[in-house]
Design brief:
Helix content: 40-55%
CATH topology of the largest domain: Isopropylmalate Dehydrogenase
Number of helices: 13
Strand order of the largest sheet: 1-10-9-2-3-8-6-7
CATH superfamily of the largest domain: Isopropylmalate Dehydrogenase
Number of domains: 2
Strand content: 5-15%
CATH class of the largest domain: Alpha Beta
Largest sheet: 8 strands, mixed
Order of helices and strands: HHHEHEHEEEHEHEHEHEEHHHH
Structural class: alpha/beta
Radius of gyration: 21 Å
Length: about 350
């Protein structure tokens, strides 16, 4: 689902990477494109048409570009409503947002290199509860949003986070506001209960304001952060900047059954849409996460390595101070990927034996 703004541009680059991997490994991927978000409002009168939802339910995985833009501000139903509806319909309760400072690129972080170096954090955000899905009221004089969580909702996302911590460095930080919010007190007690099943994972708790401060003063103290919907939205965007640009980062959203959704965490950036200035790295990272989720971990690692090598070699879009366009960046990633697939010692060796393949 390419979506709106820069979504079609970055998604195209990611899909082309997946096609190279599919062809090289005889994975037999097939792709179908569907309207979603603002373009779906224009074409179908709603952000999540029934045909798109049906296609998503029948897919093995879903790749999303970005949605939204000022041209849909006056619509009865905004593009973002389609995303909330999709998460609810597919039961996508766990949002995983990894962020790391790539070795050799510490200078791109707004933090001092000595602070940013080695930062590698996974935010696990509960995605279908809390304020975003609670009952709402609004009139000229007052408004309210209900924040509600059940023990079962907290338990299922906590298990996702603990399993992730077990496969990483074995540390989990649960973020809440238990000194003020009743939902946070339930959150904390439930996380502690789930922790008993993971004695190999070290657990601590932080209030959300303290966590926000620690992310920019000592990001390497974190391994996995587990938190509720609103806090996760805010903290993961804060974390994204530590790597140098929000354009680098991808995400996955999953449930108990059915397909997972993969998308860069950046927005639709309508001001640069169609200008070949977008950074497709977040979409390509999301494609690597898609491969890993489908069981192709070696291919996922290869794609991630190709992306990071491209950045280290100096091919960078404007958000990283470079002058390479979206299409050129994607071509360079695919050229590097093709070299790795071919097992050649260098890109020059590959091009000598494969005249001009992959641009």
């Amino acid at each position: 689902m390419p979506g709106d703004g820069i979504g079609p541009e970055v998604t195209h680059q990611a899909v082309q990477c997946l096609k190279i991997i599919s062809d090289a490994g005889a994975l037999d991927f097939s792709f179908a494109e569907h309207d979603f978000g603002g373009v779906a409002i224009d074409a179908h009168g709603e952000p999540l048409p029934a045909s798109t939802l049906q296609a998503c339910r029948g897919a093995d995985a879903i790749l999303l570009g970005a949605i939204g833009g000022p041209q849909w501000d006056g619509c009865a139903e905004r593009p973002e409503a389609g995303l909330l509806a999709l998460r609810k319909a597919l039961g996508l309760f766990a949002n995983l947002r990894p962020a790391r400072v790539i070795p050799g690129l510490e200078d791109f972080s707004p933090l001092k290199p000595a602070i940013a170096a080695g930062a590698d954090v996974l935010v696990v955000r509960e995605l279908t509860g809390g304020l975003y899905f609670g009952e709402k009221s609004l009139n000229d004089d007052a408004a309210s949003d209900l924040c509600s969580y059940s023990k079962g909702e907290i338990e299922r996302v906590a298990h996702v986070a603990f399993r992730a911590a077990r496969s990483r460095r074995g540390r989990l930080t649960s973020v809440d506001k238990a000194n003020v919010l009743a939902t946070s007190r339930l959150w904390r007690s439930t996380v502690n209960s789930v922790a008993a099943s993971y004695p190999d994972v070290k657990v601590d708790h932080l209030y959300v304001d303290a966590a926000a401060m620690a992310l920019v003063t000592s990001p390497t103290r974190f391994d996995v952060i587990l938190t509720e919907n609103l806090f996760g939205d805010i903290l993961s965007d804060e974390l994204a900047v530590i790597s140098g640009t929000i354009g680098l980062l991808g995400s996955s959203s999953s449930g108990d059954n059915g397909p997972s959704l993969f998308e860069p965490i950046h927005g639709s950036a309508p001001d640069i849409a169609g200008k070949n200035r977008a950074n497709p790295a977040g979409a390509i990272t999301s494609a690597a996460m898609l491969l890993d989720t489908l069981g192709h971990s070696a291919e996922a690692e290869m794609l991630g390595e190709a992306l990071e090598q491209t950045l280290r070699e100096g091919c960078r879009t404007a958000d990283l101070g470079g002058n390479h366009g979206c299409a050129e960046f994607g071509e360079r990633v695919r050229a590097t990927l093709a070299v790795k697939i071919a097992g050649q010692s260098s890109m020059q060796d590959y091009f000598r034996s494969n005249r001009g393949c992959c641009g």
